[in-house]
């Protein structure tokens, strides 16, 4: 599982007004990559491919280097106060990924080079809430670690929040390419989280991401670098032998993590859910998926803008919470469960 290298690369001409834009241009030229240009990172059209299925796959390996215009941050409950927008899109192919619906016709990856302007906006949000601390989530619209070996934006952000008085950074990843982040001066202000799951879920529904063993190895490196560590178990997905599958995951984590990581560990638990529009997109992009998307089997929960989601039945939900909560207590008694949703 090699670090991501885009097949197609586009630049917004304005990106070259920023140091990171120039650096990336040089880097891609040295790699022998053809550079294409686009007037706006929101308008990359005519990607190659004979049909939607192929175009979708090409888009997921296309990188657009652009300038982030909207510097108003979205809120990011329950894990943080705000989403900090360094990138949009992801090269992974998780069948259930919520980005499939939120990114609609633009599944290509965008990285933003006006990083200082994004930091300035974050500073204003922090000032507004001071002396309360403000948490920023860097992985709401992408798997930021997956492209950071190219941009090092996340590394800068870790060091930026390390120096801040009232800011905290958090992000989650399914990738193990973390080595360049290990020596960042984080000052304990970044919570580095990994998305973990039962082996069945990773193998069947998370193509294009790092395997479980690699994620665990990366988590141990991150713990050794003294980052506060966390795990998001999402989506919790009921399948034959799920209790045992999740138990094995906890056993592996417990066996491999260094003791110091176990003292300040957080868990976030998110059950599988889908919306009707998501189901349509998933069935189009991953027609062979085994992912169970039967509305009849689920409970409907009203959501924002009239788009409700299908979650597990109350008794299933209670069982999941009890089983996984029990594993947390058994294997990591000092850890905290931040939420189950
Ligand atoms: Fe989506 Fe995360 Fe998978 Fe990327 S790694 S496809 S962001 S779920």
TrEMBL record:
Transmembrane intervals: none
Key words, A-Z: 4Fe-4S, DNA damage, DNA repair, DNA-binding, Iron, Iron-sulfur, Lyase, Metal-binding, S-adenosyl-L-methionine, Sporulation
GO terms for MF: 4 iron, 4 sulfur cluster binding; DNA binding; DNA photolyase activity; metal ion binding; S-adenosyl-L-methionine binding
Requisite cofactors: [4Fe-4S] cluster; S-adenosyl-L-methionine
Record's keyword annotation contains Isomerase: no
Enzyme class: lyase
Catalyzed chemical reaction(s): (5R)-5,6-dihydro-5-(thymidin-7-yl)thymidine in DNA = a thymidine dimer in DNA
GO BP: DNA repair; sporulation resulting in formation of a cellular spore
Ribosomal protein as UniProt keyword: no
Enzyme Commission number(s): 4.1.99.14
GO cellular component, one term: endospore-forming forespore
InterPro entries: rSAM, SPL, SPL_Bacilli, SPL_firmicutes
Described purpose of this protein according to its UniProt entry: Involved in repair of UV radiation-induced DNA damage during spore germination. Can repair thymine dimer 5-thyminyl-5,6-dihydrothymine (known as spore photoproduct (SP)) by in situ monomerization of SP to two thymines.
Annotated family: Belongs to the radical SAM superfamily. SPL family.
Assembly with partners or alone: Monomer or homodimer.
Name used for this protein in its record: Spore photoproduct lyase
């Amino acid at each position: 599982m090699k670090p991501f290298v885009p097949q197609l690369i586009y630049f917004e001409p304005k990106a070259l007004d920023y140091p990171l834009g120039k650096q990336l241009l040089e880097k891609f030229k040295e790699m022998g990559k053809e550079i294409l240009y686009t007037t706006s990172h929101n308008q990359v059209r005519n990607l190659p491919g004979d049909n939607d299925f192929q175009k979708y796959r090409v888009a997921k390996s296309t990188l657009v280097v652009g300038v982030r215009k909207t510097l108003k941050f979205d809120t990011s409950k329950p894990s943080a106060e705000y989403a900090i927008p360094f990138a949009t899109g992801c090269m992974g192919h998780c069948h259930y990924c919520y980005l499939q619906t939120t990114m609609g016709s633009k599944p290509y990856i965008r990285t933003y080079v006006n990083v200082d302007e994004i930091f300035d906006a974050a500073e204003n949000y922090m000032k507004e809430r001071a002396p309360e601390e403000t948490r920023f989530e860097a992985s709401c619209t992408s798997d930021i670690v997956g492209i950071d070996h190219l941009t090092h934006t996340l590394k800068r952000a870790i060091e930026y929040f390390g120096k801040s008085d009232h800011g905290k950074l958090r992000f989650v990843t399914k990738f193990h390419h973390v080595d360049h982040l290990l020596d960042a001066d984080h000052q304990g202000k970044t919570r580095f989280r990994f998305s973990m799951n039962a082996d069945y879920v990773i193998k069947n529904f998370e193509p294009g991401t790092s395997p479980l063993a690699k994620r665990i190895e990366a988590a141990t490196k991150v713990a050794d670098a003294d980052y506060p560590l966390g795990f998001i178990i999402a989506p919790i997905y009921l399948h034959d032998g799920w209790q045992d599958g999740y138990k094995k995951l906890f056993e592996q984590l417990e066996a491999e993590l260094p003791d110091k990581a176990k003292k300040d560990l957080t868990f976030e638990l998110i059950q599988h859910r889908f919306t009707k529009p998501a189901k349509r997109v998933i069935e189009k992009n991953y027609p062979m998926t085994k992912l169970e998307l039967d509305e009849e089997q689920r409970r409907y929960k009203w959501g924002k803008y009239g788009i409700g989601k299908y979650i597990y039945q109350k008794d299933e939900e209670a069982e999941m919470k009890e089983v996984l909560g029990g594993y947390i207590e058994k294997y990591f008694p000092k850890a905290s469960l931040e939420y189950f949703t």
